[in-house]
Design brief:
mainly alpha; Mitochondrial carrier fold; 12 helices; globular; transport
């Protein structure tokens, strides 16, 4: 009947609207893959600073001694993560955002809904991508090169460790970092973009600048959690400690100094400026074209 056909068309239309946010998120992240490749040495330098508590000069010298072949060891997981991360993060946040008003009417302010949806998307993101981050951190730690020389050897060793100590090591700090980071990003994205656009900039430039500013703020705020995760995940086997014990050990190793804890923070800003600025600009442009 016409009514049934109309209902089917409406359902298909709604499905396509939901699918677009996943598609646009994945596309924007895929297009930012090239900058990820370019800045990967920067990321690896930051990682070495987080693990070994060294200066930029010493971290770069260490990578130089290891040679160009090992420079990109561990690049595969972040490349896969970048594309899948954007697909899941933007798509799931949009899906949750569409569902929240139905269940939270008169309870939560409409302005807070994007942040709440971002929080939920961040938790799911942590569940999906913690294993990727674990593999990446093991591969980037030069101390694992001799006994875990290949990706296959790393995967087999982590499987033998069990889920909690293997692939999902440091899940709690990752979940906290991703949930709060996504909440801040999506909560601030709209207001910051509007404020920047009021300065007379083009929509593309406004999106790029807003993505850069927000990711800079988020990265710096949550940087200590990233340092904790890197230190918890870089090692395989040995004396396994919990989150609180690892944090206490990390804080002590940094001489209880925020300056030492934030080593590499400036490079995180550089990386965020490139990747999240581009991702935000491309995503917003696709959304406006399809809107």
């Amino acid at each position: 009947s016409r009514k049934t056909l109309s209902s089917c068309k409406e359902a298909l239309g709604n499905l396509m609207v939901h699918f677009q946010s996943y598609l646009h998120g994945g596309t924007s992240s895929l297009l930012s893959t090239l900058p990820t490749l370019i800045v990967f040495p920067v990321y690896k330098t930051v990682f070495r600073q987080q693990i070994h508590n060294t200066s930029v000069h010493k971290a770069v010298a260490q990578l130089y001694r290891e040679g160009p072949v090992k420079l990109y060891r561990g690049v595969a997981p972040p490349l896969v993560m970048r594309t899948l991360n954007g697909t899941l993060l933007f798509g799931l946040q949009d899906t949750l955002l569409r569902q929240l008003p139905l269940s939270s009417q008169n309870v939560i302010s409409a302005k807070a809904l994007p942040a709440l949806a971002g929080f939920g998307a961040g938790v799911v993101e942590a569940m999906v991508f913690t294993p990727f981050e674990r593999v990446q951190n093991v591969l980037q730690n030069s101390q694992n090169d001799s006994r875990l020389p290949s990706l296959k050897s790393v995967l087999l060793r982590l499987k033998a460790e069990g889920m909690a100590l293997g692939y999902y090591r440091a899940f709690l700090p990752i979940a906290a970092r991703n949930a709060f980071g996504s909440s801040l990003y999506f909560g601030l994205k709209g207001p910051v973009c509007v404020a920047v656009a009021e300065q007379g900039l083009s929509p593309m430039a406004s999106s790029f600048i807003s993505g850069t500013v927000i990711s800079m703020a988020v990265s710096l705020t949550l940087y200590p959690l990233s340092v904790l995760v890197a230190n918890m995940q870089a090692q395989v086997g040995g004396d396994v400690k919990g989150v609180i014990a690892c944090w206490a050990l990390l804080w002590k190793s940094r001489n209880r100094s925020l300056a030492l804890l934030y080593r590499g923070g400036s490079m995180v800003i550089l990386r965020s400026c490139i990747t999240w600025g581009l991702t935000t600009a491309i995503y917003d442009r696709q959304e406006k074209r399809s809107g």
